[in-house]
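A student in our group prepared the protein record below, which I am reviewing. I have pasted the whole thing underneath without changing anything:
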Amino acid sequence: MRLTPLVRTLLALLLLNVCGATTDAEKPLHSIAGNDGAEMVLIPSGEFQMGSSAEEVKQFLRELQETRDRLGRARKKSLPPSVPFRSLHNDAFNDEIPRHTAYLDAFYIDTYEVTNAQYRKFVEKTGHREPKFWDRPEWNQPNQPVVGVSWHDAMAYAQWAGKRLPTEAEWEKAARGGLVGKRYPWGDEFSEEYVCYSDEQACPVGSYPPNGYGLYDMAGNVWEWCLDAYQPDFYQRSPERNPLADGDIKSVITNYLNVETDRILRGGAWMVMHLYFRVAERHGVAPTSQTFMIGFRCAKSANP
Protein backbone atom coordinates (compact mmCIF):
# COMPACT_ATOMS: atom_id res chain seq x y z
CA MET A 1 0.00 0.00 0.00
CA ARG A 2 1.37 3.43 -0.98
CA LEU A 3 1.34 6.00 1.82
CA THR A 4 0.50 9.63 1.25
CA PRO A 5 3.09 12.21 2.34
CA LEU A 6 0.83 13.26 5.25
CA VAL A 7 0.45 9.70 6.51
CA ARG A 8 4.21 9.11 6.16
CA THR A 9 4.91 12.25 8.20
CA LEU A 10 2.45 11.27 10.95
CA LEU A 11 3.93 7.77 11.12
CA ALA A 12 7.42 9.21 11.35
CA LEU A 13 6.44 11.51 14.24
CA LEU A 14 4.78 8.62 16.06
CA LEU A 15 7.82 6.47 15.44
CA LEU A 16 10.15 9.00 17.05
CA ASN A 17 8.00 9.05 20.17
CA VAL A 18 7.84 5.25 20.37
CA CYS A 19 11.57 4.78 19.79
CA GLY A 20 12.56 7.29 22.43
CA ALA A 21 14.69 9.67 20.42
CA THR A 22 17.28 11.42 22.56
CA THR A 23 18.84 14.85 22.41
CA ASP A 24 21.20 13.27 19.88
CA ALA A 25 18.24 13.30 17.45
CA GLU A 26 18.87 16.88 16.47
CA LYS A 27 16.75 18.06 13.57
CA PRO A 28 18.56 18.64 10.29
CA LEU A 29 19.33 22.33 9.87
CA HIS A 30 18.16 22.59 6.29
CA SER A 31 18.20 20.92 2.90
CA ILE A 32 19.65 21.87 -0.45
CA ALA A 33 19.33 20.71 -4.04
CA GLY A 34 22.40 19.03 -5.51
CA ASN A 35 23.72 19.63 -9.00
CA ASP A 36 21.62 16.71 -10.20
CA GLY A 37 18.49 18.30 -8.72
CA ALA A 38 18.28 15.76 -5.91
CA GLU A 39 17.27 17.00 -2.46
CA MET A 40 19.99 16.70 0.19
CA VAL A 41 19.67 16.95 3.97
CA LEU A 42 22.29 18.50 6.23
CA ILE A 43 23.49 16.12 8.95
CA PRO A 44 24.94 18.18 11.81
CA SER A 45 28.48 17.72 13.06
CA GLY A 46 29.11 15.83 16.26
CA GLU A 47 29.72 12.46 17.86
CA PHE A 48 27.68 9.29 17.55
CA GLN A 49 28.05 5.66 18.61
CA MET A 50 29.07 3.49 15.68
CA GLY A 51 28.98 -0.30 15.38
CA SER A 52 27.71 -3.01 17.72
CA SER A 53 28.67 -4.42 21.10
CA ALA A 54 30.01 -7.95 21.57
CA GLU A 55 26.80 -8.97 23.36
CA GLU A 56 24.68 -7.69 20.48
CA VAL A 57 26.77 -9.69 18.02
CA LYS A 58 26.15 -12.87 20.02
CA GLN A 59 22.43 -12.15 19.91
CA PHE A 60 22.51 -11.55 16.14
CA LEU A 61 24.20 -14.92 15.65
CA ARG A 62 21.55 -16.69 17.72
CA GLU A 63 18.76 -15.00 15.78
CA LEU A 64 20.38 -15.71 12.44
CA GLN A 65 20.83 -19.37 13.31
CA GLU A 66 17.22 -19.63 14.43
CA THR A 67 16.01 -18.03 11.22
CA ARG A 68 18.11 -20.28 9.03
CA ASP A 69 17.03 -23.36 10.95
CA ARG A 70 13.42 -22.35 10.39
CA LEU A 71 13.77 -21.60 6.71
CA GLY A 72 16.30 -24.31 5.94
CA ARG A 73 18.75 -23.08 3.38
CA ALA A 74 16.29 -22.65 0.55
CA ARG A 75 16.55 -18.87 0.51
CA LYS A 76 20.33 -18.87 0.44
CA LYS A 77 20.42 -21.41 -2.38
CA SER A 78 18.02 -19.29 -4.43
CA LEU A 79 20.35 -16.28 -4.46
CA PRO A 80 22.85 -15.82 -7.29
CA PRO A 81 26.53 -16.03 -6.25
CA SER A 82 27.04 -12.28 -6.70
CA VAL A 83 24.47 -11.40 -4.03
CA PRO A 84 26.09 -10.58 -0.67
CA PHE A 85 25.14 -13.18 1.94
CA ARG A 86 27.20 -13.51 5.09
CA SER A 87 28.27 -17.07 5.86
CA LEU A 88 27.36 -18.29 9.32
CA HIS A 89 30.40 -18.85 11.52
CA ASN A 90 31.54 -17.85 14.97
CA ASP A 91 33.10 -14.55 13.88
CA ALA A 92 30.17 -13.43 11.73
CA PHE A 93 29.34 -9.80 12.55
CA ASN A 94 32.68 -9.33 14.36
CA ASP A 95 33.54 -6.65 11.82
CA GLU A 96 30.95 -4.50 13.66
CA ILE A 97 32.80 -4.48 16.98
CA PRO A 98 33.76 -2.76 19.11
CA ARG A 99 31.08 -0.10 19.36
CA HIS A 100 33.02 3.14 19.35
CA THR A 101 32.63 6.90 19.28
CA ALA A 102 33.08 8.65 15.95
CA TYR A 103 33.07 12.39 15.36
CA LEU A 104 31.96 13.65 11.95
CA ASP A 105 32.06 17.10 10.44
CA ALA A 106 28.73 18.28 9.04
CA PHE A 107 27.79 16.85 5.66
CA TYR A 108 24.90 16.63 3.23
CA ILE A 109 23.37 13.37 2.05
CA ASP A 110 20.69 12.61 -0.54
CA THR A 111 17.19 12.30 0.87
CA TYR A 112 16.50 9.42 -1.53
CA GLU A 113 18.50 6.78 -3.33
CA VAL A 114 19.54 7.79 -6.86
CA THR A 115 16.71 6.83 -9.22
CA ASN A 116 16.69 5.48 -12.76
CA ALA A 117 15.36 8.84 -13.98
CA GLN A 118 18.27 10.72 -12.40
CA TYR A 119 20.82 8.21 -13.63
CA ARG A 120 19.41 8.39 -17.17
CA LYS A 121 20.15 12.12 -17.27
CA PHE A 122 23.74 11.34 -16.30
CA VAL A 123 24.04 8.72 -19.05
CA GLU A 124 22.54 11.06 -21.65
CA LYS A 125 24.82 13.96 -20.67
CA THR A 126 28.06 12.01 -20.41
CA GLY A 127 27.69 8.91 -22.58
CA HIS A 128 28.51 6.72 -19.57
CA ARG A 129 27.52 3.09 -19.95
CA GLU A 130 23.97 2.09 -19.04
CA PRO A 131 23.38 -0.01 -15.93
CA LYS A 132 22.67 -3.68 -16.18
CA PHE A 133 18.98 -4.61 -16.09
CA TRP A 134 17.70 -1.48 -17.84
CA ASP A 135 16.08 -3.83 -20.35
CA ARG A 136 14.02 -5.36 -17.53
CA PRO A 137 10.74 -3.59 -16.60
CA GLU A 138 10.95 -4.80 -13.01
CA TRP A 139 14.17 -2.78 -12.56
CA ASN A 140 13.95 0.17 -14.97
CA GLN A 141 11.00 2.23 -13.72
CA PRO A 142 11.83 5.97 -13.41
CA ASN A 143 11.24 6.26 -9.66
CA GLN A 144 12.89 3.01 -8.66
CA PRO A 145 16.46 3.16 -7.34
CA VAL A 146 18.99 2.54 -10.08
CA VAL A 147 20.60 -0.92 -9.75
CA GLY A 148 23.20 -2.83 -11.72
CA VAL A 149 25.80 -0.10 -11.13
CA SER A 150 29.33 -0.79 -9.98
CA TRP A 151 31.16 1.27 -7.37
CA HIS A 152 33.05 2.92 -10.22
CA ASP A 153 29.76 3.80 -11.94
CA ALA A 154 28.43 5.31 -8.71
CA MET A 155 31.62 7.31 -8.26
CA ALA A 156 31.38 8.64 -11.83
CA TYR A 157 27.78 9.74 -11.27
CA ALA A 158 28.70 11.43 -7.99
CA GLN A 159 31.51 13.39 -9.63
CA TRP A 160 29.19 14.49 -12.45
CA ALA A 161 26.66 15.64 -9.84
CA GLY A 162 29.30 17.60 -7.88
CA LYS A 163 29.09 15.16 -4.98
CA ARG A 164 30.75 11.97 -3.76
CA LEU A 165 29.74 8.73 -2.11
CA PRO A 166 29.22 8.90 1.67
CA THR A 167 31.87 7.48 3.91
CA GLU A 168 30.78 4.45 5.88
CA ALA A 169 30.66 6.49 9.08
CA GLU A 170 28.58 9.22 7.41
CA TRP A 171 26.17 6.61 6.11
CA GLU A 172 25.70 5.02 9.53
CA LYS A 173 25.21 8.31 11.33
CA ALA A 174 22.66 9.37 8.72
CA ALA A 175 20.87 6.02 8.90
CA ARG A 176 20.55 6.21 12.69
CA GLY A 177 18.59 9.42 12.31
CA GLY A 178 19.64 10.66 15.75
CA LEU A 179 18.55 7.54 17.62
CA VAL A 180 21.13 6.04 19.95
CA GLY A 181 21.86 2.32 20.23
CA LYS A 182 18.96 1.13 18.07
CA ARG A 183 19.08 -1.74 15.60
CA TYR A 184 17.15 -0.14 12.77
CA PRO A 185 16.53 3.42 11.60
CA TRP A 186 13.18 3.32 13.43
CA GLY A 187 14.05 1.36 16.61
CA ASP A 188 14.85 -2.13 17.88
CA GLU A 189 11.92 -4.18 16.55
CA PHE A 190 11.82 -5.23 12.92
CA SER A 191 8.63 -4.32 11.05
CA GLU A 192 7.79 -4.54 7.36
CA GLU A 193 5.75 -1.33 7.82
CA TYR A 194 8.98 0.67 7.61
CA VAL A 195 11.02 -1.05 4.93
CA CYS A 196 10.83 -2.37 1.36
CA TYR A 197 11.12 -6.08 2.05
CA SER A 198 9.78 -8.50 -0.54
CA ASP A 199 10.57 -11.39 -2.88
CA GLU A 200 9.81 -9.40 -6.00
CA GLN A 201 11.69 -6.16 -6.67
CA ALA A 202 12.83 -2.82 -5.29
CA CYS A 203 10.15 -0.25 -4.46
CA PRO A 204 9.85 3.31 -5.75
CA VAL A 205 12.03 5.51 -3.55
CA GLY A 206 10.23 7.11 -0.61
CA SER A 207 7.52 4.45 -0.37
CA TYR A 208 8.02 4.03 3.38
CA PRO A 209 8.36 6.45 6.32
CA PRO A 210 11.60 8.45 6.71
CA ASN A 211 13.92 8.27 9.69
CA GLY A 212 14.55 11.04 12.20
CA TYR A 213 16.69 13.01 9.75
CA GLY A 214 14.04 12.84 7.03
CA LEU A 215 15.96 10.25 4.97
CA TYR A 216 14.16 7.48 3.09
CA ASP A 217 15.14 3.85 2.48
CA MET A 218 18.11 3.79 4.82
CA ALA A 219 17.14 0.15 5.40
CA GLY A 220 16.00 -2.20 2.68
CA ASN A 221 15.17 -1.41 -0.93
CA VAL A 222 18.78 -1.68 -2.24
CA TRP A 223 22.26 -2.02 -0.79
CA GLU A 224 24.13 1.30 -1.06
CA TRP A 225 27.75 1.82 -2.04
CA CYS A 226 29.99 3.75 0.36
CA LEU A 227 33.33 5.42 -0.32
CA ASP A 228 35.43 3.21 1.99
CA ALA A 229 37.38 0.07 1.37
CA TYR A 230 36.04 -2.91 3.30
CA GLN A 231 38.43 -3.87 6.08
CA PRO A 232 36.98 -6.41 8.55
CA ASP A 233 39.20 -5.22 11.40
CA PHE A 234 38.91 -1.49 10.75
CA TYR A 235 36.97 -0.77 13.94
CA GLN A 236 39.91 -2.10 15.97
CA ARG A 237 41.96 0.91 14.87
CA SER A 238 39.47 3.39 13.44
CA PRO A 239 40.36 7.04 14.10
CA GLU A 240 37.80 8.92 16.14
CA ARG A 241 37.47 11.91 13.80
CA ASN A 242 36.05 11.50 10.27
CA PRO A 243 37.11 7.85 9.89
CA LEU A 244 37.78 6.47 6.41
CA ALA A 245 39.26 3.03 5.82
CA ASP A 246 41.77 3.84 3.10
CA GLY A 247 43.34 7.25 3.28
CA ASP A 248 41.52 10.51 2.74
CA ILE A 249 38.45 11.46 0.75
CA LYS A 250 40.33 13.49 -1.83
CA SER A 251 42.79 10.72 -2.70
CA VAL A 252 40.05 8.09 -3.05
CA ILE A 253 38.05 10.34 -5.37
CA THR A 254 41.09 11.32 -7.44
CA ASN A 255 42.22 7.72 -7.96
CA TYR A 256 38.86 5.94 -7.99
CA LEU A 257 39.30 4.44 -11.46
CA ASN A 258 42.29 2.45 -10.17
CA VAL A 259 40.49 1.06 -7.11
CA GLU A 260 40.31 -2.74 -7.03
CA THR A 261 39.83 -3.48 -3.32
CA ASP A 262 36.44 -4.47 -1.92
CA ARG A 263 34.13 -1.58 -1.10
CA ILE A 264 31.54 -1.16 1.63
CA LEU A 265 27.83 -1.83 1.12
CA ARG A 266 25.27 -0.65 3.65
CA GLY A 267 21.54 -0.87 4.30
CA GLY A 268 20.43 -4.30 3.12
CA ALA A 269 18.21 -4.96 0.13
CA TRP A 270 14.63 -5.86 -0.64
CA MET A 271 14.96 -9.66 -0.42
CA VAL A 272 17.52 -10.37 2.32
CA MET A 273 16.94 -11.37 5.94
CA HIS A 274 15.86 -8.67 8.36
CA LEU A 275 19.15 -8.73 10.31
CA TYR A 276 20.86 -7.29 7.23
CA PHE A 277 18.72 -4.14 7.56
CA ARG A 278 20.45 -3.13 10.80
CA VAL A 279 22.21 0.22 10.74
CA ALA A 280 25.50 -1.33 11.92
CA GLU A 281 25.54 -4.14 9.33
CA ARG A 282 28.64 -4.06 7.08
CA HIS A 283 29.38 -5.85 3.84
CA GLY A 284 32.29 -5.78 1.43
CA VAL A 285 32.17 -6.73 -2.26
CA ALA A 286 34.30 -6.12 -5.32
CA PRO A 287 33.90 -2.60 -6.74
CA THR A 288 33.02 -4.13 -10.11
CA SER A 289 29.90 -5.86 -8.70
CA GLN A 290 26.71 -5.08 -10.60
CA THR A 291 23.63 -6.80 -9.20
CA PHE A 292 19.93 -6.03 -9.11
CA MET A 293 20.26 -5.40 -5.36
CA ILE A 294 22.93 -2.67 -5.33
CA GLY A 295 22.37 1.07 -5.81
CA PHE A 296 23.60 4.21 -4.05
CA ARG A 297 22.95 7.71 -2.77
CA CYS A 298 25.36 10.64 -2.75
CA ALA A 299 26.85 12.92 -0.11
CA LYS A 300 28.98 16.06 0.02
CA SER A 301 30.92 17.85 2.73
CA ALA A 302 29.16 20.85 4.23
CA ASN A 303 32.47 22.76 4.35
CA PRO A 304 34.53 21.61 1.35
